[in-house]
Design goal:
- The complex is a heterodimer of chains A (56) and B (729).
- Chain A is an all-alpha fold and 56 residues long.
- Chain A is elongated, with a radius of gyration of 21 Å.
- The longest helix of chain A has 25 residues, at 3-27.
- Chain A contains two helices and no strands.
- Chain B is an alpha+beta fold and 729 residues long.
- Chain B has four domains: 1-87, 2-Layer Sandwich (Alpha-Beta Plaits), CATH 3.30.70.100; 97-224 and 342-407 and 671-722, no CATH class; 239-327, Calcium-transporting ATPase, cytoplasmic transduction domain A, CATH 2.70.150; 449-549, Calcium-transporting ATPase, cytoplasmic domain N (3-Layer(aba) Sandwich).
- Chain B has 25 helices and 27 strands.
- In chain B, helix 20 (578-588) links the parallel strand 23 and strand 24 (592-594).
- The chains are: A mainly alpha (56), B alpha+beta (729).
Chain lengths: 56, 729
């Protein structure tokens, strides 16, 4: 059972990373705009100029 | 927003040489809007960046100081097709959102702790401690302690603080038994671990905390959402005033920049945005928003005018008597105060229950301890059993029973355009048996429409509409809107009388009955529309009298029927004259209608109703309704209501329909039923769990299952509050 001495801290560390990620996300305002993020992902703002944009 | 309005009051300076402004942009719906606004603004000279928040419909813009002005940013957004309304960004960083973030952080930490402690506990329950000397088990227990103690120390603070506060005030709230239960479970577990015991209760304490935090965080986010919408609406409504400077120049300013003692100009047809005394000018004022009276009042120098009233005929110079009452900040602050101060009276009832409950539980635990000792058990195991009684009765389900329902019901109302202003409104709303409506602006729409449009030929209406466009008078505006007129006729305005223009060589006029010499034609119109204001038109095909009135909300009749069917008595209390009120009452089929009620009369009537033992919901919008709203058991007002009135209303509803009132009542009744069910369930849970604990059978596994199970049942039951009979989805 000696492996537990490694596995349990590993489990704790992984959980801790998740917690750290959550706290970071909150501090940097990742949850401030839950609706906008889905649209930003598909925005065409990386196209070279306006003429290339699909007409909507 | 008028380009001339000086908006610099909204600019803030987050860093040296940087200016920033927060704006509400109501028209953003999708990704295309985000790109258009952000790219469009970023292309401007000196703009450092713009960020759209689609969820809250706001934009934050930053630019190098001096390169742009607040007005140029608003103009740019306007030209992009998005009318924007600046608001004071400081409110965003308010206490509320800080509190919400704090709760979320605690919830995150508690979830992390619960996850890891559970990981260890489940392993133990599954048999990981089967080795001979229990070394692994002890190791797991020490790991649990390592996680659970800091977790609870951090995530438990909202409860500990509140419990401490309550104890210092020598009272008890729900947080006191919660704190005692959690702290004892941890302390006992540490001692048990020290003694190499078989079982510990770390996971019970942490899990309890997590469930309760989840409930609080949801509650808080619901409140913030409501408040955000309130801020947006206030920003969009943001009145401005025309300030007269010392040197006689006039400049438009947002109301936030107007101070007591300033002199403002109110032109004909404008809404008065301040309270003040008239220094110069004679006019008629439509005070329907203030008094409910639809007939205009004569205003002379020295008279008081109130914010929200409509200046009909002449320009007025008004000395501001109060600093911008009901500005964005005031409004939000009063909303906040109400929302924070007032927890649901059912929570208060639960608090009261906990005052009763805490001694009972603690005495039961003591009795358990003494009982086991008396039966010959050693004091240590007896103490452990006594503490498990405390842990298992820890009011997890009881603590969630009411808040969970509140969150769900408030969310359901929010989606149906009802914003709860005070926490305990739900329960009071569920208890009502009488609904009292104000007429003007509540049963009727706040805007005016032409009542007798059908009696007038299309050609006459079109011509009258075109002429009406030339006038600033609100009655003329209603005619122009009904006629859908777009191109104004060339016309001259005679302030206080009307407008005169020419059409195919003939002179045509629109204005007062006297101005158009149409008194004879007015008779039948008055008889047909006793509550209407009249405006006359002298056209090429004879004289016409238009009846302009505030039409009933389209679904008013249906809503009154729905409320009646729900077993509620309906009354109308109006400050308007008798004929107007009788007409509306007849149309809606309401028998109890009183007219010419002054604020004191309204309160007297409400008191009389209460003396009969009735529970009254007052729905009103006027300044004259504010005291009545405060006096009623529970109150609602439309979002168009006077600012002061809104501050006294327990709930507000948006839009042109009256249906939210009926929806709110139905949802509140459902919510109350669910709260009672939940409370009974918690009692039942305790009735089963406590004997098990007293007999000493409450192992940590049983405690964990019982607590999470009861929390889940209560929460799932609360979800049913999203729908109620008769409420559309």
């Amino acid at each position: 059972m000696n492996v537990l001495v490694i596995l349990v801290p590993v489990a704790l560390a992984l959980g801790g990373m998740g917690l750290a990620a959550f706290l970071w996300a909150m501090r940097t305002g990742q949850f401030d705009d839950l609706d906008g993020a889905s649209w930003r992902a598909i925005a065409d703002d990386d196209l070279p100029d306006d003429n290339d944009k699909p007409k909507t | 927003m008028d380009e001339a309005t000086d908006l610099s009051v909204f600019v803030r300076h987050p860093a040296e040489g940087v200016s920033a402004m927060d704006l509400v942009v109501d028209g953003v719906y999708c990704g295309a809007c985000i790109v258009t606004i952000e790219k469009g603004l970023f292309g401007e000279r000196g703009v450092r960046g713009a960020r759209v928040n689609l969820a809250s419909k706001r934009v934050t813009v930053e630019w190098d100081e001096g390169t742009q002005s607040a007005n140029s940013i608003v103009r740019k957004l306007d030209s992009l097709g998005y009318p924007a309304f600046p608001f004071s960004g400081l409110t965003v960083e308010s206490l509320e959102s800080a509190h919400e973030k704090e709760l979320l952080r605690c919830l995150g930490v508690a979830a992390f702790g619960a996850m890891n402690v559970m990981l260890l506990s489940v392993a133990l329950w599954a048999g990981a401690s089967a080795d001979a000397n229990g070394a692994t088990r002890d190791l797991f227990h020490w790991f649990s302690a390592l996680v659970a103690l800091p977790t609870v120390a951090y995530a438990g603070r909202p409860f500990f603080d509140s419990a401490l506060k309550a104890v210092r005030l020598r009272s008890l709230n729900m947080d006191v038994p919660i704190t005692i239960g959690v702290v004892l479970s941890l302390l006992m577990s540490v001692v048990l671990t020290w003694q190499h015991a078989q079982e510990t209760y770390f996971e019970s304490g942490v899990m309890l905390l997590m469930f309760l935090l989840a409930g609080r965080a949801l509650d808080q986010s619901m409140r913030r959402k409501t408040r955000d919408v309130a801020i947006n609406l206030a920003a969009i409504k943001a009145d401005k005033a025309t300030k007269i400077l010392e040197d006689g120049r006039v400049v438009d300013m947002p109301l936030a920049a107007i101070l007591a003692g300033d002199l403002v100009l109110v032109r004909a047809g404008e809404r008065v945005s301040v309270d003040g005394v008239v220094e110069e000018g004679i006019s008629e004022i439509d005070q329907s928003l203030v008094t409910g009276e639809t007939a205009p009042a004569q205003i002379l120098p020295g008279a008081m005018v109130y914010a929200g009233t409509l200046n009909l005929s002449g320009a007025l110079r008004v000395r501001v008597s109060k600093a911008s009452e009901g500005t964005l900040l005031d409004e939000v602050e009063s909303l906040l105060e109400n929302a924070i101060e007032q927890r649901s009276s059912y929570v208060k009832l639960a608090d009261r229950a906990s005052r009763l409950y805490a001694p009972v539980v603690h005495l039961t635990a003591l009795a358990t301890f003494l009982g086991w000792v008396a039966l010959g058990t050693a004091w240590e195991p007896a103490l452990i059993i006594a503490i498990t009684v405390l842990i298992i009765t820890c009011p997890c389900a009881l603590g969630l029973a009411v808040p969970a329902v509140q969150v769900v019901a408030a969310g359901a109302m929010f989606r149906r355009s009802v914003m709860l202003n005070s926490g305990d409104a739900l329960e009071r709303l569920a208890n009502i048996d009488t609904v009292v409506f104000d007429k003007t602006g509540t049963l009727t729409l706040p805007t005016r429409t032409l009542a007798n449009a059908e009696d007038i030929s299309a050609a006459d209406l079109a011509l009258a509409g075109a002429l009406a466009l030339a006038s600033h008078h609100p009655l003329a505006k209603a005619v122009a809107e009904t006629a859908r007129a777009r191109t104004p006729l060339d016309a001259q305005e005679f302030p206080g009388e009307g407008v005169e223009g020419t059409f195919e060589g003939a002179t045509i006029r629109m204005g007062s009955l006297a101005f158009c010499d149409a008194s004879a034609e007015a008779g039948p119109v008055v008889a047909r529309w006793p509550d209407a204001s009249l405006i006359a038109f002298a056209g090429p095909r004879g004289k016409i009298v238009f009846a302009v009135r505030q039409a009933l909300r389209r679904d008013a009749k249906a809503v009154v029927e729905r409320l009646t069917k729900a077993g509620l008595a309906i009354e109308i209390l109006s400050g308007d004259h008798q004929a107007a009120v009788a007409e509306v009452a007849r149309e809606l089929g309401v028998r109890e209608a009183r007219s010419q009620m002054k604020p004191a009369d309204k309160i007297a009537r409400l008191k009389a109703l209460r003396a009969e033992g009735r529970k009254v919901l007052m729905v009103g919008d006027g300044l004259n309704d504010a005291p009545a709203l405060a006096a009623a058991d529970v109150s609602m007002s439309p979002i168009t209501a006077a600012d002061l009135t809104q501050a006294f209303a327990d709930a507000m509803f948006l839009g042109d329909r009256l249906a939210p009132v009926a929806d709110a009542v139905a949802l509140a009744r459902k919510a109350k039923a669910l709260m009672i069910q939940n409370l009974w369930f918690s009692v039942l849970y305790n009735a089963v769990a406590v004997p098990i604990a007293i007999l000493g059978y409450a192992s940590p596994l049983i405690a964990a299952i019982a607590m999470s199970g009861s929390s889940a049942v209560v929460t799932l039951n609360a979800m049913r509050g999203r729908r109620a009979p008769g409420v559309s989805k």
